[in-house]
Design a protein that fits this description.
- By secondary structure, this protein is α/β, with parallel strands linked by helices.
- The protein folds into two domains: about 5-225, Carbamate kinase (3-Layer(aba) Sandwich), CATH 3.40.1160.10; about 305-430, VC0802-like (2-Layer Sandwich).
- About 40% of the residues lie in helices and about 25% in strands.
- It contains 14 helices and 16 strands.
- The strands form three sheets. The chain has an eight-stranded mixed β-sheet, with helices on both faces. Strands 12-13-11-14-16-15 form a six-stranded antiparallel β-sheet.
- The N and C termini lie far apart (about 65 Å).
- Bound molecules: adenosine-5'-diphosphate, aspartic acid (ASP) and magnesium ion.
- Magnesium ion (MG) binds near residues 11, 12 and 205.
């Protein structure tokens, strides 16, 4: 069933300062008569800044309070430029920051992931409070909603999985009635809560996914994410010069590209939209009138080569200590530990006596995995690698990307090539 609801998502870059918040308001002005759910991320690099506060607290370095003070000041500065000094938003924002103060008053919780989720969402809570206050101030009636009362997850902190049934019920009971009223509904990306009301997060960059959850549950007519690029490009413009915009992309193509590191959309975003055939528009908040990219089901399959790069990869080579074959029961054991350590496997390859996996090197997960399998297997790890994925590859593009790199692992399925590479040390290159 379709209705006229649209879901918009504005990321950190689109609300990084007061001028950007005003720009968001001017985009929204054009939709003032529409039913709109708006999902907003933390401002600019706030989430990184809160991560530093969490680390400082967990390690008791003594810096946490100063870092928090800096972050507060940055936000007050932005509020100053948006509303007058007597506005109640100052107190509301202050109350939200007090939640971090309270955590800092206590001994750090030994469960780092839990501690992280109890603090990280303050970025989103503050940004949405400020944006909602400004929209109301600018004559765009907006209702602020706490996403934690809507999106229910399990308790896998920092990477929580959505419990769809309860989330769906909450949407019907709490969001639908708000949509009957005039004005926008505005909420936070990235955060959710468990059934015991502890805050969880959906994984870094998860606000796109939040917007997809709202779109799915509310049968949105379309979803738009507003970015600092014209749309989905053939590669990251920060890393490559000659990139072009894709006007259309199929869900499948978008899932593959984002899963392998095209950072423009969170990889989990596409599936809920695909399941209900909801088109996703990637648009520019700098040039809002531009056509952007439309991601949908039926798209002609003539794509140019597209490149996605995932950094921070580790290649783990596992072999049996007695040079016996790597047999099924070994693989079973290895995969069991892969799951326990929540390793994100991007590529794997086996020979008779060894098995290699390319994974994202997050926190100490690789070290934990190695220590678990070391008794039974020889384990060698290469770190600081890049996984380069080229879809619809052409030989010249592949050769260019290999240049100056050592290829440690290569795989090819139909028109997709993946290579795990490291930079050639300078001396070797000169020879
Ligand atoms: P948000 O502000 O919503 O968090 P992001 O900064 O996470 O947005 O995503 C936008 C960025 O994604 C762009 O600035 C660009 O550098 C990067 N990017 C990576 N791959 C692509 C791609 N294929 N097309 C467009 N942008 C890409
Ligand atoms: N603020 C969160 C992050 O920076 C979520 C998001 O922006 O999507 O990861
Ligand atoms: Mg982002």
């Amino acid at each position: 069933m379709t209705n006229s609801l649209k879901v918009f998502k504005f990321g950190g870059a689109s609300v990084k300062d007061a001028a950007s918040v005003k720009n968001v308001a001017s985009i929204l002005q054009k939709y003032s008569t529409q039913k709109l759910v708006i999902v907003v991320s933390a401002m600019g690099k706030t989430t990184n800044a809160i991560e530093k506060i969490i680390q400082a607290h967990a390690q008791q370095t003594g810096e946490a309070r100063d870092l928090l003070e800096q972050l507060k000041q940055q936000h007050y500065q932005i509020i100053n430029e948006l509303v007058d000094p007597t506005h109640e938003v100052y107190d509301t924002v202050n109350d939200i920051f007090v939640e971090i103060d309270w955590v800092l008053d206590e001994e750090p919780d030994p469960n780092y992931d839990f501690l992280y989720d109890q603090m990280i969402g303050v970025g989103e809570l503050v940004s949405t409070t400020i944006v909602a206050a400004y929209l109301n101030h600018a004559g765009l009636p907006t209702q602020w909603v706490d996403a934690r009362g809507i999106i229910r997850t399990d308790d896998i902190y920092r990477e929580a999985w959505v419990q769809w049934d309860t989330t769906m019920e909450n949407m019907q009971e709490k969001i639908k009635p708000l949509l009957e009223k005039d004005g926008f509904v505005l909420t936070q990306g990235f955060i959710a809560s468990t059934e015991d009301n502890y805050t969880t997060s959906l994984g870094r960059e998860g606000s796109d996914y939040t917007a997809a959850i709202f779109s799915y549950c509310l049968d949105a007519e379309s979803m738009s994410i507003w970015k600092d690029v014209k749309g989905v490009l053939t590669a990251d413009p920060r890393k490559f010069k000659n990139v072009t915009k894709l006007d259309f992309l199929s869900y499948r193509e978008a899932i593959e590209m984002t899963y392998y590191g095209a950072k423009v959309i969170h990889p989990k975003t596409i599936k809920p939209l695909q399941n209900k055939n909801i088109p996703l528009f990637v648009k520019s908040f700098i040039e809002p009138e531009g056509s952007g990219t439309c991601i949908k089901a039926e798209v002609e399959d003539h794509y140019p080569p597209m490149v996605a790069i995932e950094t921070n990869q580790a290649l783990i080579h596992i072999s049996t200590r007695d040079f016996s074959f790597v047999a099924e029961h070994h693989l079973k054991e290895i995969f069991d530990k892969v799951a326990t350590c929540r390793l994100n496997v991007h590529m794997m390859q086996n020979t008779a006596i060894s098995f290699s996996i390319c994974v994202t090197d997050i926190d100490d997960r690789v070290e934990r995995f190695c220590s678990m399998v070391q008794d039974e297997f020889n384990v060698v790890v290469d770190k600081d690698l890049e996984l380069i994925t080229i879809r619809h590859y052409q030989k010249e593009v592949l050769n260019q990307l290999r240049h100056g790199k050592i290829v440690l692992l290569e795989g090819r399925i139909r028109r997709t090539v993946q290579i795990v590479v490291k930079d050639v040390p300078i001396l070797e290159r000169i020879e």
